[in-house]
Amino acid sequence: MTFNWFRRPNSESAEVPTPATQEETPAPEATPSETTTPDTADLLAFAKAAYKNIQEKQVETETPVAVEEETPTTTEEVTAPVTEITEDIVTPTESEPEQIETPALSFLERAAAEREAKQEKLIASAIETPAPETAIAITEPEPTPEVEVIELEFDDGFVWSAEVLAAQGRKAEDISIEEITWLKKLRQGLDKTRRNILNQIKSIVGQGPLNQNAVNEIEALLLQADVGVEATDYIINALQKKLLAEVTPPEQAIAYLKQILRDILDAPLAHKPPSSFAPTKDTLTIWLMTGVNGAGKTTTIGKLSHLAQKSGYNCLIGAADTFRAAAVEQVKVWGQRSGVEVIANPGKNTDPAAVVFDAITAAEARQTELLLIDTAGRLQNKKNLMDELSKIRRIIAKKAPNAHVESLLVLDATLGQNGLRQAEVFSQAAQLSGVVLTKLDGTAKGGVALAVVQQLGLPIRFIGAGEGIEDLRPFSSYEFVEALLSG
Ligand SMILES: Nc1nc2c(ncn2[C@@H]2O[C@H](COP(=O)(O)OP(=O)(O)OP(=O)(O)O)[C@@H](O)[C@H]2O)c(=O)[nH]1
């Protein structure tokens, strides 16, 4: 059965109820790990049962259990599109009615239908300037992405990951090797932040009532972890309220600290319906991917398209970062790797809105459920960026009025507070609805996640913890905080 990562039981968008998540926790004393987690011996038994179950499944299927690929170093080897269609794009006019054919046809028939549709000039759009180029390239993916087996090991990381899943009410028989592998990666990725800074905070908080010195120390450590001034103030105030007033046993104090961090991370979702974010089957969802060059936008699009494919969604990529020539090539490489088609316009200086237009046409013809759109990371100035993004939004609103649209900002965690300054420009330009935090592996600035949420008021939707195609998953505040403080 296909495992839907976007609706994973312990992710925010889950539809499956979790018996003891942080949202349902009335007080810090009753966090998942304290209420539902059995004692250590039981947890070990749980981990062993999960391990045995995964082993048995592996024997049954005799197929590789996880995917991991080398990041390609050059684009040339794989960029040649399998199919390239060159055609005239008839510039749509404002006055003509919109008619889009979405038949279930073979690939060639669909391509012909698209051509015909355009030739008949039946498509209206909000493109203000005509698309200068006259060719659309559809990079068809190779049939199956490469796979590589990941060894199943019953090690410390496995036990920790199983414990985190157990604490969220998961059953040993439902746990997959991929979930374990991801949690191990997350824990490893946050290792530096945890070791350098948060372990010290944990030991101070665990020592009993906070005196002023302890408060000052915690404050300095949080700032070092790039938690940011606002989130640090919030944490300190909340800790002081609780820990100055009462004598709290160390475990409870730490549980309280974890609760505070989760509260910050979950705050932007407080008034949202739980399943509002995951793509819905049989309807079109469009995610506009924004962010400065180098943040990991292209890589994220590749990883998301792979995740969408394996979660059972029809996915398509629109290469609308036409500002930088190499960006289109890079996105094509990722399309090849994840087995997802890329809609691009091969000419130079093409209108990104025209690419979006073509991508939506293709998405409608192919019954695409998730369309990922790459956008330019750098334009001459903020106004250009705003103009371009709003033009893209207008095209989407006109051409796909029923699509569910989200705008995600890709942020490089290693930049810490500097990344946030860039983020503010995008948040003014792009009507952002969430953040993808990349490169959490190997940085000591993992605390920036808290700053992002507190300062931008945006939820983190995905996190990246490595360069491989499997190294990005939906964000879970519970798992993140556990990896940060108890990994
Ligand atoms: N360690 C690590 N590296 C990452 C992660 N995500 C992306 N990268 C690396 O960051 C670099 C930049 O990623 P890109 O996806 O090319 O970034 P971009 O934002 O599309 O930038 P341009 O390609 O310049 O437009 C690449 O070397 C990626 O492999 C991550 O989660 N962890």
TrEMBL record:
Low complexity composition bias: residue spans: 14-41, 61-77
Every SRP54-type proteins GTP-binding domain range: 459-472
Family annotation (SMART domains): AAA, SRP54, SRP54_N
One Pfam family cited in the UniProt record for this chain: SRP54_N
Subcellular location: Cell membrane; Cytoplasm
Quaternary structure annotation from Swiss-Prot or TrEMBL: Part of the signal recognition particle protein translocation system, which is composed of SRP and FtsY.
Function summary: Involved in targeting and insertion of nascent membrane proteins into the cytoplasmic membrane. Acts as a receptor for the complex formed by the signal recognition particle (SRP) and the ribosome-nascent chain (RNC).
Similarity remark: Belongs to the GTP-binding SRP family. FtsY subfamily.
Protein name: Signal recognition particle receptor FtsY
Organism in which the protein naturally occurs: Cuspidothrix issatschenkoi CHARLIE-1
